Structures are given as C-alpha cells and as structure tokens.
Amino acid sequence: MRKLIILGLLAATVAPSVASAQSYGEARRSERNLREEQRDLRQAQRYGDRRDVREERREVRDARQEAREDWRDYRRSHRNVYRGGNWRAPFRYSQWNAGVQLRPAYYNSRYYIADPYRYRLPRPGVNQRWVRHYNDVLLVNVRNGRVIQVHRGFFW
C-alpha cells in the first residue's frame, strides 16, 4: 500500500512538468506555423489571384488564433513566471493607450524588461523597449517616448 501511495505522489509531481513541456512545444509549433502562413500569404499576394489571397488570409487568421490560444495556455500553466510580485513605482498608475507619448520618467532603463523572451514577448525593434508599468507591459519607442503596443494585466 505504501508503494502505491508513493507511486501516486510521484506521478502527481511528474505529470504537470510533462504537460507544461508539451504546452511550450505546441506554442512554438503554432508560432512557426503562423510564420509559414504569413510567408504563403505574401507569395499569394505577389503571384496569386484574389481567391488565393482570400484563402491565405483566412489561414493566417486561423494560425494567429491558434498561436494566441497556445500562448494563453502556456501563460496559464506557468503562472509563477507572470506573477506580479511587489513592484512599486514613484508615480501613480495610469492606463496608457497606444499612440500616447510618455515622459522619460515612465520608461527609463529602471523599468525595462531585461529578458522579454522569458515572458514570450516578441523581440522589440530598433529603439524600442518593453517597459513594465505596474501590471501592464508597454512597448515604447525610447527615442520619442511614444507607446506602440499595450498588454494590460500582463502580470497576475
């Protein structure tokens, strides 16, 4: 009986790690599939007719939806990575929208997300940085302070 209980506890601890590894693999495959569909769409726009372009747009939309769902599943299964923690700033919370220009105090290097790949955020472009603002994540152009993209409630 004791061996059965120990075996059950061992299985309970191993199963979540196997499920999360599978979820990460699924997320990577769906992102790769999205890139392939976008490449097919570009080819259809160059060489295909309207029907081909319409069909490829539909496939890109489906691939995007699948990638979003896989990312949400990954995020849900890895809650400890997205935990908010004790994060405070010397300014009050403001809900920012894309297109707003921030003062430098809101996006200085103190608030940069050093490793965006840990949170599965896309790579920022030239002169762009992912910035944490309380539980939100902002993609900011650091040259002019303009907000490019916003993820609200990103951290739990």
TrEMBL record:
Endpoints of the signal sequence: 1-21
Ranges of Basic and acidic residues composition bias in the record: 26-66
Location of region: Disordered: 21-66
Gene3D superfamilies: inner membrane protein cigr
InterPro entries assigned to the protein according to its UniProt record, in alphabetical order: RcnB
Keywords associated with the record: Signal
Keyword hit for Signal: yes
Protein name listed in UniProt: Uncharacterized protein
Originating species: Sphingobium indicum BiD32
